[in-house]
Design goal:
By secondary structure, the protein is α/β, with parallel strands linked by helices. The chain has one domain: Glutaredoxin (3-Layer(aba) Sandwich). About 30% of the residues lie in helices and about 30% in strands. A hairpin with a 5-residue loop joins strand 8 and strand 9 (about 130-135). The longest helix has 12 residues, at about 45-55.
């Protein structure tokens, strides 16, 4: 399991999006990338976070950045989720969890006394050269997008 730090080279990826294309981090070189990992499409916290990123996408673009969401849901699930909420950015599918693990966000979690493995809500800002500029671990959804905007 990776333990990434600010200044590290961001692990590259090429993953399917909901629209059927493949998105790679290399394609985004030259732009800042807000790469956010979230547990599951269509759950309350993940929906709120996605909608806030979408609502503030113009402000994020003005800062020279693009948003990409990552979860282990399928590309078809991402398409339905993005269409339902009219999201303005791509969601990539990492069903085998390779990238999720390479970013170190596959963690032991617990709910109601039950322990299980899952995605810890985490956001990375990657600079124009592909290096990690900021890391937001254990994200609390309320106020997070503003926190990201301030960091950009």
């Amino acid at each position: 399991m990776a333990r990434l730090a600010v200044g590290d080279k961001a692990p590259d990826f090429s993953l399917p999006t909901g629209d059927g294309s493949i998105l790679s981090l290399k394609q985004l070189r030259g732009k800042k990338v807000v790469l956010y990992f979230y547990p599951k499409d269509n759950t309350s916290g993940c929906t709120k976070e996605a909608c806030e990123f979408s609502e503030k996408s113009t402000a994020i673009k003005r800062k020279g950045a693009v948003v990409v969401g990552v979860s282990a849901d399928s590309a078809s699930s991402h398409k339905k989720f993005a269409d339902k909420y009219d999201l303005s950015f791509p969601l990539v599918s990492d069903e085998d969890k390779e990238i999720i693990k390479s970013y170190g966000v596959w963690k032991k979690k617990s709910m109601y006394g039950r322990q299980y493995m899952g995605i810890e809500r985490t956001t990375f800002i990657i600079d124009e050269k592909g290096n990690i500029a900021s890391i937001f671990p254990k994200v609390k959804v309320n106020g997070h997008v503003d926190e990201v905007l301030n960091a950009l």
